[in-house]
Amino acid sequence: MSKQKKQGTNLLYQLIAEARSYPDTIILGRGDPDFDTPPHIVAAAKEAMVQNHGEFTPPEGIAPLREAIANRVKRINNIDVDPATEIVVTNGGQEALFLMVLAVLAKGDEMVVPEPNYNTYHDSMKFAGAVKVSVPTSADNDFYIDPAEVRKVITPKTRALLLVSPNNPTAGVISEPEMKEMIKIAEEHDLMILADDIYDLFVYDDFKHVSPASLPGGKERSLTLNALSKAYAMTGWRLGWIVGPADLMARVKELKAAVSGGTSIISQYAGLAALTGPEEPVQMMADTYKRRRRVVLDALDEMGIKYGVPQGGQFVFADISFTGMDSAELAQKILSEQHVLVYPGSAFDKSRAQYIRMTFLQPEEKLREGLEKMKETMSKLQVSR
Amino acid sequence: MPSKTKATILQHHQQNRLLNTAMPPLAMRNPNDLSADDLLAPLDERVIEATVSALESGQTHYVDVPGIGPLREALAKFLNSSAGTSAQMSNVLVTAGVQESRFLSIHLISEQLGKIAIPSVVHPGVRKTLGIRPLETIEVDVDAATMLPTLTAIRAALSSGAKLIYLESPSRLTGATYSAEDVAAIAELIHEHDAAAIWDQGLAVWADSSPSLAAQQGMAERVAVIGEAWPGMGLTSWHIGYIAAPEPWIAPMQSQKQIMSICTSTASQYAALEASNLFEQTYPEIKKQLNNARQQLLDTAKLDVLQGGAVNILAIRSTADIERLQSAGYDVADGAEFGAPGVVRITITGDDTAQNIIEQLA
Ligand SMILES: Cc1ncc(COP(=O)(O)O)c(C=O)c1O
């Protein structure tokens, strides 16, 4: 393998490539549920192949899917949207994210980004020529976003505030009082809010997910994304959406048309089936992740690794500073020695080289095996503590 | 209080003339819609079977950013056999449709090379995607008969510093194609000016002869080819396309593809893979039908058309004809969106298109 130093997403892809070269790799890195898409959704896709395969797909998505999305965001996120004018369907959460950034940020504009965060925000902002203004968060207080810190970094060029809750990779959840405070800040400084709800169904203990657009003053200034990838095990279908106020969404629609024209008709019908079909498979998966989260946290406790309690999401962001190693080096070591893939924190934020991200997206048995293997490497390192 | 920030953002977008370019629909919206980019074709049962079988066996997860290996190989093979190129799998990027191909190739290649030359008449998706981020562009004049950029205009654009030129052959408006001599001359000009090209040959399968620029000597390193994956196989609304390009350009386009969509839908990829196996058997018949329909329209409806080539489209310029079509209830693609006001395009979708039009116009 090339030892050339890669960063960010490229570093992750390099590790994925090496992980693939071992037949027995246990992947605790990538955010791809181990479950396959539930069969009733595949069956609906088949039906659409027969009935709807040639249908016109407007850039904003087909009407029945937009209806279903409107119902979903009302029911789960408490956001009122008009399916005719306030929704654009996208190629996964990823395209939604890219379009939200393009919609709100132009060259030189700043966005406040709690760090660490999902690296694609950074990549998309770079494409738009926008500037990231970081607000660091830390495992010590479970990645709480301090409003005072947010206020401190706002300048006349700040256009928007990014709120990913639950966050990737930290798994931090923004509580309702904090969210209200963030909206207050946005109102005070006249900022837009980019909200990423992709992990909204995965919240643990007593934590609750709240969408900024559901709170007073939130909707008018928010674009909110979501996708079926994580909750319905549909990462390969590439189906997501953005909701927001009609005036801005009219612009998002033009951006969507310019970037990719439309979204696969088959994925849209599959998405419709997911949103209108039985909830049990989703619940079953969510319950399973909850159990596995406990398994991972117990193993980390045994290894003596500190972490911010994952309040949501499908992963834990663990502090490996005691090893004295850089996270990319450690991830490389765990991968080469144990064939276990974890993600280095430095790939999410250069200043987080003392963290690793581990997902719980493997069957429990495999997860335990991966953790045992990891323990071997970690115990050797612990000697030097 | 209304947000000033939002008002500024909205104004910024509203003033973006390029971004607000209107586009014809990709697929027909109703039986009288002749404005669509692509024809409505049946979907072979075997495509459905293969796709469902892939999905049922768990191909529902993220796949490699540039596309699944077998599909990239099939695309390389298809391009090499149909267009005479010499692409390898590593030269191919699977996209979520031809508009994503336009976006990625235009923005990422021009980022490396500089000023891009754009025909004054071109698919509106090109202008629309130029609205995403400011690029230095120069317009290339077209021939009034074919609506393809003239060699003189191409030379002028390259001489004035354009390092990249976007060309369609067949034209997405008229269906006209460059001849072998023209393509050789374009290659020569590109070579002479140390430039490069994006070559949209999506409609090439519908023309009797549409030589590819990428197949010319020395052009493999200078040309990115884009198009839709297997036209006529019923996959229009599945949004699946490709870019075949020199490897040094694939890397940045692949990175951008990761940023904007991670990968292309697996259902669409497996469907396209199966379509690749059936294409050779299926498409000659479809092409024959389209050709018959087109000929019938030309002979019987006596439409005043521009010089074309691809059998699936006709560009019409007589005001009387355009009015006749519109008053018979047909939607037509407005040439103004392509940069050719006064011209409209109709898409021939099957062997009954001509019959219907002739009856309606009678
Ligand atoms: C926070 C966040 N947003 C968006 C995405 C994009 O997801 P997808 O495009 O698979 O729907 C991800 C994927 O990991 C994510 O973690």
Describe this structure in words.
The complex is a heterodimer of chains A (385) and B (362). Chain A is α/β, with parallel strands linked by helices. Chain A folds into two domains: 8-31 and 281-380, Aspartate Aminotransferase, domain 1; 40-276, 3-Layer(aba) Sandwich (Aspartate Aminotransferase, domain 2). Chain A contains twelve helices and 13 strands. In chain A, the strands form three sheets. Chain A has a seven-stranded mixed sheet, with helices on both faces. In chain A, strands 9-10-13-12 form a four-stranded antiparallel sheet. In chain A, strands 1-11 form a two-stranded parallel sheet. The longest helix of chain A has 24 residues, at 280-303. Chain B contains twelve helices and ten strands. In chain B, the strands form two sheets. Chain B has a seven-stranded mixed sheet, sandwiched between helices. In chain B, strands 8-10-9 form a three-stranded antiparallel sheet. By secondary structure, chain B is of the alpha/beta class. Chains A and B meet through α1, α2, α4, α5 and α8 of A and α1, α2, α4, α5 and α8 of B. Pyridoxal-5'-phosphate (PLP) binds next to α4 of chain A.
DSSP strand content of chain A: 5-15%
Shape of chain A: globular
Which value, in Å, is the CA radius of gyration of chain A?
A: 20 Å
Largest interface: chains, residues each: A-B, 65 and 68 residues
Summed up, the domain count of chain B is: 2
Write down the overall geometry of chain B.
globular
Using only C-alpha atoms, the radius of gyration of chain B works out to 20 Å
- By CATH, the topology of the largest domain in chain B is Aspartate Aminotransferase, domain 2
In angstroms, what separates the terminal alpha carbons of chain A?
30 Å
- By DSSP, the count of extended strands of chain A is 13
Q: What share of the residues of chain B does DSSP label as strand, in percent?
A: 5-15%
> What is the CATH architecture annotation of the largest domain in chain B?
3-Layer(aba) Sandwich
Largest sheet of chain B: 7 strands, mixed
Instruction: Provide the number of structural domains of chain A.
Output: 2
* Sequence of secondary-structure elements of chain B: HHHEHEHEHEHEEEHHEHEHEH
Q: pLDDT average of chain A, as an integer?
A: 94
Total number of strands of chain B: 10
Class based on secondary structure composition and strand pairing of chain A: alpha/beta
SSE pattern of chain A, N- to C-terminal: HEHHEHEHEHEHEEEHHHEEHEEEH
Ligands present: pyridoxal-5'-phosphate
Provide the low-confidence segments of chain B as ranges. Answer: none
